[in-house]
Each structure stands twice: as C-alpha cells, then as structure tokens.
Amino acid sequence: MKILAYTFLFLILGYSLCSAQQLRVVYVNQNKHKVDLNKVSDEISDREMYEAIKEAMQRKTEFELVINGQESLYKEIEKIDNSQVEPGRIRVVIRSGAQHQFTDLSRKEILSKAKSADKEFLVTDSLKNFDWQLTRDREEYLGYEVRKAISRDAKQTTVAWYAPAIKLSHGPAEFQGLPGLILKVETTMNDKEESVFTWLATSVQVLDKLPQSFARPTQGQRVTRNEFKEINEAHNKRLNEMYGGGIDKD
C-alpha cells in the first residue's frame, strides 16, 4: 500500500513539473581556456596581472533563470564577496554573455540591461538561430532524461542537453529553441585558444508565483547590440587616451 502511495505521489510531482509554466532554474557558469598559462606568463610582463587572469579563469558564477511560459529572466545571483583585494592588487573579472537578460520567445526578442560610462542602456537583439541538430544520445541528469543537441557555426560549436519532459524551450544565457528545457550547455570557440564556456543546472524548482523582480525591462536608452558595441568601444578608446593605455590599480 505504501509503495502505491509513493508511486502516486511521484507521478503527481512529475506531472506538476512537466506541465508547469513557472520555473526557477539555477545554473553554474564557468569559463575554461585551453591555454598553457606558463607560456602565457612569458608574454605578460606583469606577474600580478598573470595571477589575476589565472584566478578569474577558475572562478565559477551562479545564475538563475526564472521562466513564465514564453518569457524568461536570466540574471546573475548576487553574493556577498567577503574576500578583499589588497590595495594595489589587481582583480580580473571574465564575463560570458549578458548579466541581466529578458527573453520573449513569442516575439523572438532579447532585452539586456547594460552600462557604459555610467549610463544605462537597454540593448535589444533578436533570438539567435542555433540550427540545432538533434542526436540519439541520452543520459540522466538531475533525475531527468536529457538528450543531446549540437549546433555549429563559423565562431563556435555548442553542445546542449535538454529535458523533453519539461516542455519549455528556454535555457541559460542566449541558448533556447530546443523541444525541452536546456539543463547543460558547453560552447567551444573555434579559435586557437579553444575557449570553453559551460553552464550546468544545479536545481529546478516549480514556482507558485513569480518574484517581484520578474518584469520586462524598460529603463535605459534603447539601442541595438551593434550600436551598444560601438558606444562601448568609443568609451574605452577615450579611457585609453586619458590614461595612456595603462592599468589603474585599486
């Protein structure tokens, strides 16, 4: 009798998750660069900068993806950093993609918050077409059957694992468009350094209600991604001219 009860409860919970339209997924993101740091150190005259880059490469970052049907909000989970950088020391931060991104699958639109020269921007972009190739490879991850899909273009090769049982076509960062929630992603850049970026889901939670922070962003000057890139490059050029291309240490 207890076995039947547990089986019935499992089926109810499984159906609830599969049919849910409001989810919170936590991902861990890490950037890996297949490069010999000892060789790189020969090219970096500042040993302190070399150590800062090495530390940044090994750092992991947590993100949350809140989903409401066709819409999702992806942002970094803010944590209190008790580690203090000594005066005169350098700290390098390596980012992969937007840190606050709103995706609307129905409109095929991505809205990202960004800053340049202390000015807020709302960067608009269209959904990327990954041209996914579905494979027969399957495995289990976080208790779900996940299936492998591959996308290739001139710049990168992306391998994603999605859960068909969770019928939402979202994923971390810019990744989307598969017949199920994406739980794992690995992107390898087609460059000489073979940089690798990974996103691994650590938890999937059904939400009774959406957090107050879930909203389509509206603040900031609305620009396209190319326009923001030009604005940011012009700002960085001005900074380099002001400081002579040097590094300002805290």
Question: What would you note in describing this structure?
Answer:
There is one protein chain. With 250 residues, the protein is of the alpha+beta class. It is built from four helices and twelve strands. It has helices at 2-19, 37-43, 47-58, 225-243, and strands spanning 22-33, 60-68, 71-76, 100-104, 109-116, 119-126, 133-141, 144-152, 156-163, 181-189, 195-206, 221-224. The chain has a twelve-stranded mixed sheet with strand order 7-8-9-10-11-1-2-3-4-5-6-12, covered by helices on one side. The longest helix has 19 residues, at 225-243. The termini are far apart.
Q: Sketch the topology as an H/E string, one letter per element.
A: HEHHEEEEEEEEEEEH
| Share of residues in helices | 10-25%
Evaluate the radius of gyration.
21 Å
Tell me, what's the shape? globular
Count the helices. How many? 4
Our estimate of the beta-strand percent is 35-45%
Low-confidence stretches: 4-13, 90-97, 246-250
Average residue pLDDT: 81
Strand arrangement, major sheet = 7-8-9-10-11-1-2-3-4-5-6-12
Number of DSSP E strands: 12
What gap, in angstroms, lies between the N and C termini?
66 Å
The major β-sheet equals: 12 strands, mixed
Helix-strand makeup class: alpha+beta
Which terms summarize this structure?
single chain; about 250 residues; alpha+beta; twelve-stranded mixed β-sheet; 4 helices; 12 strands; disordered C terminus
